[in-house]
Amino acid sequence: MIHKPEIPALSVPLIANFALFQFVWLVTVIGAARGAAWPGLAALAFFLTVHRALSATAKADYALCALAIALGTIVETLNSASGFIVYRYPAAASYASSSCSPSASTRASTSGCHR
């Protein structure tokens, strides 16, 4: 006999998790487009707070998140360091330089601001 896996019923916590995850993604993308990381971090903090209140497995979820963050950081660092991926604006710190404004870096090249 073939075993069919159960599909979990849609619940308020599941729908809230999905909606908040999409919200965090959108806020992060909009913030990054403007050169700011803080909106995404603030949205993530809000998401984690709500998730903790709604999830019965929050502790295990946070452990999985920590592992995903560590692996993602390693993969992105290796991709960037090897040149496999080249970011237009490698760091928000480049905006702080007096001789490198976002508009100057846009005109300079596709790989960021060069002096």
Structural account:
The chain has 115 residues and is mainly α. It folds into 2 domains: 73 residues; 29 residues, no CATH class. Helix content is 62%, strand content 0%. It contains 4 helices and no strands. Helix 1 packs antiparallel against helix 2. The longest helix is centred in the middle third of the chain and has 25 residues. The protein is extended. About 16% of the residues have low confidence.
Report a brief summary of the structure:
This protein has 115 residues and is an all-alpha fold. It has helices at 12-33, 38-54, 58-82, 102-108.
Q: Can you lay out the helices and strands and say which pair or pack?
A:
Elements: H1 12-33, H2 38-54, H3 58-82, H4 102-108
Helix pairs in contact: 1-2
The low-confidence runs, each spanning 5 or more residues with pLDDT under 50, are 92-101, 104-111
Distance between the termini: 68 Å
SSE pattern: HHHH
Oligomer: single chain
Determine the structural class based on helices, strands and strand pairing.
mainly alpha
The largest sheet, given as strand count, sense and whether it forms a barrel, is: none
**Radius of gyration, CA atoms, in whole angstroms:** 19 Å
Question: What is the overall shape?
Answer: extended
Average pLDDT, all residues: 78
The proportion of residues in beta strands is under 5%
Number of strands: 0
Count of spatially separate domains? 2
DSSP helix count? 4
Q: Helicity level, as a percent range?
A: 55-70%
